[in-house]
Amino acid sequence: MSAGTSTRTARLDPDRLAALEEERDHLLASIEDLEREYAAGDLDDTDYRTLKDDYTARAAEVLRAIDEQRELAARARPPRRPGRTAAITAVVLLLAVGAGVLVARSAGQRGGGTLTGNGGTLREELANCQPLAFQEPAKGADCYQEILDRSPDNVEALTYQGWAWIRAGEVERGGRNLERVVQLQPDYPDARVFRAVVAERAAEAAAARGDTAAARAAFERAAAEIDRFFRNDPPEVAQQVLAQELLEFKVYLGLTSPPVGRCWAGTLGARGEDLALDQALYDQLGTCLDGVVAASPDDTSALVARGVAHLGPEQPDPAAALVLADRALAVDPDDADALLLRASVEAATGQLDAAERDLAVLEGRPRAPASFLLGSVSQLREVVQRARSVVTTSTVPGAAGATTTTAPRSGVSVSTVPGAPVIPNAGGG
Questions:
Q1: pLDDT exceeds cutoff 90 at 102
Q2: % of the chain exceeding 70 in pLDDT
């Protein structure tokens, strides 16, 4: 059945949704492999354009079918009792529909080569195993085993055999494969993403049975995998697959305090099918978080989340966000999300020296859970560099020097620096 057929039937089918998601991953990997072969000179211009157009069109069709299935899932889901797992699930269902757009955009971009280089017959064998693993994971694992019998350290075969076993229900067996991959090639991004998925699923299972300690530990493992994934400039396609899985958002919710998670879930749930991360959503989220902060004034995750809610796309209030970041840091000077919030606002409001000081503190630390909302350390450094470039080229009439780069803490404005950038990801990640 094609993705188009699924769209026409308009019937909720969880198995079909899982199959579509696997087909999406396969198509994105095929596009990246195509780019690698073209860059190596193995394809001429005509074949490259033909194949790329075909893969891109198929990916777009699959993404539309995924969006429809997830919309149907959101409508069909019955009311659930409030709790940590319910909060996470509600947010994931409501945001998932929009996530596919990012992957659709990335499908036409060139990746950075996540697949292990192989030549001739081995490359073809790996490509042949992909659709089989997508349709029948256990048989796909056997297909990859034939390759591994000859090339036991091939990281692509090990990774995707492991993922096939995981999809077939043999999670521990698949996990051993992924562990072997990170021993051989610690920064192979595909393995890191799959390990993060496994850890996040284990966290949700632990939360569902009420084991909060085990859930927290599993969310922390997932965060560590995501951190390692981003450390070595992973290709854009791999990053968009991670975004499609909403892993960072799930982990962020898993590591924040339960009242903050409930605010996110309740705010998004009240929007129904209106999934726009607009000013109204940020205002509603802020109202809920006001109550959390009033009840728990030392809850740093609530203070940071309330600061984020002040950064709505239409009416940002960076001064209020800075106050909340400072309050959180007064409670915990090492809170990574609070430092990131402060640095993000400082960068956007022209307090470039202050932003660089906070970014220097974060440098080398694990990726902050709120990075997908506020921008990562590397993204914020780029913001600061662009802002400095704007300032140094804007001279005062009749003077030889550049204008100042530092704005006062009180009464800050997003227009402090001419042409200053807006808050990174102010509309949500």
A1: no
A2: 70
Question: How far, in Å, CA of 277 to CA of 255, rounded?
Answer: 22
User: Which span out of 221-225, 243-247, 345-349, 373-377 was modeled with the highest average pLDDT?
Assistant: 221-225
Higher pLDDT, 90 or 47: 47
Question: In sequence order, what are the residues at sequence separation of 6 or more whose Cβ sits closer than 8 angstroms to the Cβ of residue 248?
Answer: 226, 242, 369, 371, 372, 429
CA 279 to chain centre: 22
User: Are 99 and 206 in the same domain?
Assistant: yes
Q: Which domain holds residue 371?
A: 256-392
Helix (H) or strand (E) holding 91: helix 84-106
Are the beta carbons of 310 and 316 closer than 8 angstroms? yes
> Among residues 272, 278, 304, which one has the least CA distance to residue 289?
304
Question: Which residue blocks in 107-154 are alpha helix, DSSP H?
Answer: 120-135, 137-150
> Is 249's pLDDT higher than 80?
yes
Q: Cβ(244)–Cβ(100) under 8 Å?
A: yes
- Asked whether 291 and 301 are in contact (CB, 8 A), the reply is no
The answer on 371 and 356 residing in a single domain is yes
Number of structural domains found in the chain: 2
State if pTM tops 0.70.
no
Alpha carbons 260 and 91: distance in angstroms, whole number: 12
d(CA 206, CA 208): 5
Q: How many CB atoms lie within 10 A of CB 16?
A: 18
pLDDT in tens, 143-153: 999 999 999 99
- In 3D space, the residue among 407, 385, 390, 382 whose CA is nearest the CA of residue 319 turns out to be 407
Buried b (16+ CB within 10 A) or exposed e, 73-84: bbeeeeeeeebb
